[in-house]
Every structure is written in structure tokens, then in C-alpha cells.
Design brief:
- This protein is globular.
- Strands 1-2 form a two-stranded antiparallel sheet. Strands 3-4 form a two-stranded parallel sheet.
- The protein has one domain.
- The protein has about 230 residues and is mainly α.
- It is built from eight helices and four strands.
Length: about 230
């Protein structure tokens, strides 16, 4: 069932007293960071970039071997309090100038709400499908953490067009530093609809703590390995 992993995650957090089951989640966090200190996160991200450099280099080589274009893809995203920043990823799609590029069929979008998702996206390269499945394409965002634009844990940063289309109830997502992973990612990712994602992000921001950050970091590992909800 679509939301089973979400309920399992929340029930586990309540059992471990990491989140308060009686908390009022309608409260909007005012943006104070109560998770792992950002100075520590930035240092750890720098070390991670060094340790993971062989994986980064191999990914860059494979991307360039399969299709023309830059290995990296940068995109304007919306961060805390609506601030714009450049988010980095490994390129997982053909460029529009590539003969193999195909536009997706908009009728095959399977996710309700603002963010569109396609389980089969013809724009994605073979290497791109693999690095997406195991979240390798997100590793360049460690650089975003080093610069302080992102954190390890937080709401995923939206596109300008997506944020412009947010209902008022979703604006609370912008009250925290965007993250590489988060409560949504370990609760089903793309298998949940946008409204559930909003609720999970706001619950995280309202109950943010160092303990919750560590729990999500640990839960991210099996989520990535099993590719749960990754398309």
C-alpha cells in the first residue's frame, strides 16, 4: 500500500520517543535550526566528498562515455525562506540536442500534486537510471552542504515553478534548510503524494532535533540500498 512505509516510519519514531505523537503539527516552525549543527555537517560533507571521490570520478566517466554533455547538472532551487541557490546533481538525462532525447508523455505522470514524476522517463540515460535508482546522482549536493545552502536532513528544495504553485498550506516547507535526505525520503519518497510529503516535511521541521537527524541518517542507508521509492 502506498502509505504503509510512511506509517511504519512515524510509528517507529513515536515508539522511540524521537517525535511527539501529541505534538500539534499545524504549528509552523519559525526557522530555528535545532538539528545537527551546520558547522559539523559542513565539515562531514567535505570529508565525504574526499572519501567518495572514486565513486564521483567513475560516475563522471560513465556519464560522459554514454552521452554528450557536462557530467554535472545545476538547477535553480528554492531554499530556506525562499532564497534561490544552485543545486548540483550528476546529469542523468540526455540533452535536448541529443538525437536520443525524447519528451515524456505528460499523461503518464503518476504523482498527484505540484511535483511531476514518471516511472518510465524516456529522457533518462541508462547510466542515469542506475545512478538515480541508488541516489548516486544526488552526491554532488554534498558540495551544497559544504557551502551551507543545504543540510544532510531537511525538506527537498523545490523548483521556482513548483514553489509558485504551492498552496498556502505547503509554504511551511520553506522554513528550514533544504536537505539531501529527510523524513519524506525514508517514508516512501516518490511512492507518496505531494500532500503527504508536505505533511512529513512540516512534521520534521516542527520536531527537528539532533536525535531525529541521526535517526533519519541511519534510516537513509537501507532506503538507498533497496532503492525504495526511487525512479
Amino acid at each position: 500500500m502506498m502509505y504503509s512505509s510512511t506509517f511504519k516510519t512515524l510509528n517507529a519514531l513515536k515508539t522511540l520517543n524521537i517525535i511527539d505523537s501529541e505534538a500539534n503539527d499545524s504549528h509552523i516552525s519559525l526557522g530555528k535550526h535545532r538539528g545537527i549543527p551546520m558547522s559539523i555537517q559542513r565539515f562531514v560533507a567535505l570529508i565525504a566528498l574526499i572519501i567518495l571521490s572514486p565513486i564521483l570520478l567513475i560516475s563522471m566517466l560513465l556519464i560522459r562515455m554514454e552521452s554528450k554533455g557536462n557530467c554535472f547538472f545545476s538547477q535553480d532551487r528554492i531554499g530556506k525562506f525562499g532564497r534561490h541557490f544552485r543545486m548540483y546533481k550528476f546529469r542523468s538525462m540526455y540533452l535536448k540536442t541529443d538525437p536520443l532525447y525524447q519528451e515524456p508523455d505528460l499523461t503518464t505522470n503518476y504523482r498527484d500534486g505540484v511535483c511531476k514524476k514518471y516511472k518510465v522517463d524516456p529522457r533518462t540515460t541508462k547510466v542515469g537510471r542506475f545512478i538515480r535508482k541508488y541516489s548516486i546522482d544526488e552526491l554532488p549536493q554534498l558540495f551544497n552542504i559544504v557551502t551551507g545552502d543545504m543540510a544532510f536532513i531537511g525538506p527537498r528544495p523545490g523548483l521556482s515553478a513548483e514553489v509558485d504553485a504551492y498552496p498556502t498550506s505547503a509554504l511551511g516547507r520553506l522554513n528550514g534548510i533544504p536537505g539531501l535526505s529527510g523524513l519524506w525520503q525514508v517514508s516512501g519518497r516518490a511512492n507518496t503524494d505531494f500532500q503527504t510529503q508536505v505533511e512529513l516535511d512540516q512534521r520534521y521541521l516542527n520536531q527537528q532535533s539532533i536525535c531525529l537527524d541521526f535517526y533519519i541518517l541511519l534510516a537513509t542507508v537501507p532506503t538507498v540500498i533497496t532503492a525504495n521509492g526511487a525512479y
